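Bumping my old thread because nobody answered last time. Still need a sequence for this structure:
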């Protein structure tokens, strides 16, 4: 249990809220002029905790099977929780909790049915405009991610994902449309979700299927694709500042946190190297240039990338206004892992920490690690920070009376709020907001399950899409409402 070292206090105007992603909540995959995304083609596979990485294995044969599948096939992102039709009801529930901010993403393929289309899809524009107006009607500030793990399918089938330089121009066209049509409704923007993730799951982050690059060094493909995303992000940031002065554009990273497993120098050095891998691309988005260690990393891997001189100028001109991140858990790092227990985490494996409890999915809860991460990030970047994902996946039970008792979720929230308060008041961190991940139950990205539930709101659906889709308030709904009402100072449970 995290114990405060200072009294609870959050600044006036602190942005409390929740977070979702279009591919995990919207559904409506073939409605309103929406084109397909790679997420519409990812099946649910029943795998154990130890084999969770099998969810990310994907081939051209898997894609062909998905494109031939009928509507009864189990592709959970196609249906999600049908936020596409329930968004007004759901936003009203968020408002009842007192949300000040709601993080969502825009599905690129809902704005441009085909990314090559010269004009946007007006049905998609109308959907998001109405959603943002609905948020504002309830006093909720939208925080919008332009690309959240759902590249348009055409980038996979007709291009080579983000490996193709032409995709930069397509993305910038899409970003321009979003700023032009929604800039008066959305103050806070993010370019790419967990921008570092392509090195862990290239399909959803970069539209890259390894067997489609025969004879190529796939590591080199990924580094090249990452360069193109860096240039596209910088162009989008620069464009947003030019089009609508005053808007804020941030980057978003996976805040993986590794402790040395022991005090052996080798374990500490291995940890330092692993953490450099966490920061490499956010360093570009904040400082506007490639860090020397990233050039060395590519050199050691025998990888080279193609870039234009103007790319480096764009990186300098398109630095972000704030740094946002996801944080769920911590792991340990050892130079030699033989004989050590391993624990899964947010798309990574690490050495299990014997001092921490674990969820059913093996993620180790560590509120102190959130404070540690906040200090580490603020010391490194000296920019405002925004926690845009944090939460606990658990199996919840819907009782016959419609109640859901989830004291474990409230306990997790309490500990992490206490850690945030100390980071602000003792460590001097500039933290502007906090959005709980999966504020309403959604399809998990790491397992594609509904049964791994994060929300304060229960959605009656199982892993195979069976259920009424009816929404129920969990006990944690009222607890988060209390936290927000008190601006983080009343954590009594």
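Sorry it took so long. Here it is:
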């Amino acid at each position: 249990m995290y114990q405060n070292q200072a009294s609870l206090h959050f600044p006036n105007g602190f942005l409390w809220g929740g977070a979702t992603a279009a591919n995990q909540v919207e559904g409506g995959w073939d409605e309103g002029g929406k084109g397909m995304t790679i997420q519409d083609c990812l099946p649910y596979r029943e795998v154990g905790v130890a084999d969770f990485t099998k969810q990310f294995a994907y081939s051209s044969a898997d894609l062909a099977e998905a494109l031939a599948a009928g509507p009864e096939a189990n592709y959970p992102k196609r249906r999600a929780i049908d936020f596409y039709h329930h968004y007004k009801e759901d936003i009203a529930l968020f408002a009842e909790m007192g949300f000040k901010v709601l993080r969502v993403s825009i599905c690129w393929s809902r704005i441009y049915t085909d990314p090559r289309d010269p004009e946007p899809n007006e049905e998609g524009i109308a959907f998001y405009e109405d959603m943002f107006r609905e948020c504002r009607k309830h006093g909720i500030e939208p925080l919008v991610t332009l690309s959240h793990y759902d590249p348009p399918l055409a980038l996979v089938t007709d291009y080579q994902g983000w490996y193709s330089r032409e995709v930069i121009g397509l993305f910038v066209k899409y970003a321009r449309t979003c700023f032009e049509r929604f800039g008066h409704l959305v103050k806070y923007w993010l370019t790419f979700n967990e921008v570092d993730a392509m090195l862990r799951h290239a399909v959803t982050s970069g539209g890259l299927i390894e067997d489609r690059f025969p004879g190529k060094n796939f590591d080199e493909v990924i580094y090249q694709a990452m360069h193109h995303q860096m240039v596209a992000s910088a162009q989008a940031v620069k464009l947003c500042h030019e089009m609508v002065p005053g808007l804020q554009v941030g980057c978003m990273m996976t805040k993986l946190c590794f402790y040395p497993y022991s005090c052996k120098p080798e374990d500490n050095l291995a940890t330092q190297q692993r953490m450099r891998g966490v920061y490499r691309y956010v360093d570009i988005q904040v400082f506007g240039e490639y860090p020397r260690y990233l050039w060395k990393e590519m050199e050691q891997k025998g990888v080279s990338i193609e870039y234009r001189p103007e790319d480096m100028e764009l990186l300098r001109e398109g630095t972000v206004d704030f740094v946002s991140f996801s944080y769920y858990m911590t792991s340990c790092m050892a130079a030699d892992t033989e004989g050590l227990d391993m624990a899964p985490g947010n798309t990574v494996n690490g050495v299990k920490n014997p001092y921490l409890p674990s969820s059913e999915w093996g993620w180790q809860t560590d509120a102190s690690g959130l404070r540690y991460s906040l200090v580490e990030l603020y010391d490194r970047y000296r920019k405002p920070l925004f926690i845009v994902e944090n939460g606990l996946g658990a199996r919840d039970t819907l009782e016959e009376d419609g109640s859901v008792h989830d004291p474990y979720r409230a306990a997790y929230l309490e500990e992490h709020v206490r850690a945030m308060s100390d980071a602000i008041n003792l460590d001097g961190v500039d933290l502007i907001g906090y959005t709980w991940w999966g504020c309403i139950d959604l399809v998990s990205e790491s397992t594609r399950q509904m049964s791994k539930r994060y929300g304060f709101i229960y959605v009656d659906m199982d892993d195979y899409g069976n259920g009424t889709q009816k929404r129920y308030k969990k006990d944690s709904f009222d607890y988060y409402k209390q936290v927000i009402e008190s601006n983080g100072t009343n954590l009594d449970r």
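The CA atoms of residues 347 and 446 lie 7 Å apart. Let me know if any region looks off to you.
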